[in-house]
Design goal:
By secondary structure, this protein is α+β, with helices and mostly antiparallel strands. It contains eight helices and seven strands. 35% of the residues lie in helices and 11% in strands.
Length: 248
């Protein structure tokens, strides 16, 4: 395939960025999107030009680093996949593909398509932990009875990889889906009950301090989430938050 790429180039957070145009040829439909980007960068390097900076690590849909806004969609036109799992067969010969970074004040651009998502780390650090007795009298986790529906819901919430697609897709740049997933995976399990009150209060407070917007139930976060995290988690977090406020 022959493609025209329109890619956001920005040297750093303090400089003004712009769209740069690139033509690329001989792209196989079986290539992943990141392999196509690798080929583009090889060509740029051969010309002595600066390659396009973009995040990637596992390339298996696990780490969430490969976050790109492709033709107006977080992670591109496919559903329930990350950018590294997107294949070029989703595009046609002669297509124009616009590639931008995730845009949110809380995700400042580092360079080109790379953004700083450390705000997510700080939200998790504010409450994403549990207290476990490791004194030698620890209870076997498998011996604790847990309702299967609760266990399944906790597991589903835990599949969130923190890529930030929910923030990039939301008109308010809200992080509610991400934060609610992290709250839910603990609030549904006995091990998470000890810090339940402090956890939701601290994580929501940190989310607000990081400058994320509020949720207005548009639902775009769930639609664009590569792991299909449900809006039910936001409702659960709201209930946990109201209960915690009542206690406090």
């Amino acid at each position: 395939m022959k493609l025209k790429l329109k890619i956001w180039r920005q040297k750093n957070n303090s400089t003004k960025g712009k769209i740069a145009n690139y033509d690329i040829d001989n792209i196989s439909p079986d290539m992943s999107f990141l392999e196509m980007m690798d080929i583009l960068n090889e060509q740029l390097l051969e010309k002595g030009e600066d390659p396009v900076a973009f995040d990637h690590d596992c390339r298996e849909g696990i780490c969430g680093m490969c976050s790109m806004f492709i033709n107006g969609k977080a992670h591109g036109p496919d559903k329930l996949v990350t950018t590294c799992q997107l294949h070029m067969r989703k595009f046609k010969d002669g297509d124009t593909i616009t590639i931008e970074p995730f845009r949110a004040n809380s995700f400042p651009v580092v360079k080109d398509l790379v953004v700083d998502r450390s705000a997510f780390d700080r939200v998790q650090q504010a409450g994403g932990f549990i207290s476990v007795n490791t004194s030698g009298n620890t209870q076997d986790a498998n011996a604790i009875p847990i309702n299967k529906q609760d266990a399944d819901n906790a597991f589903d919430a835990a599949t969130c990889i923190g890529c930030g697609a929910c923030v990039a897709s939301c008109k308010n740049a809200s992080a509610m889906l991400f934060v609610s997933a992290k709250v839910s995976q603990f609030s549904l399990l006995p091990q998470g009950k000890v810090e339940a009150t402090e956890r939701v209060l601290n994580m929501v407070k940190q989310m607000d301090e990081e400058g994320f917007g509020n949720c207005t139930n548009t639902g775009s976060c769930e639609v664009e989430c590569p792991k299909g995290i449900s809006l039910e988690n936001i409702a659960r977090m709201n209930r946990e938050y109201l209960k915690a406020k009542a206690i406090k």
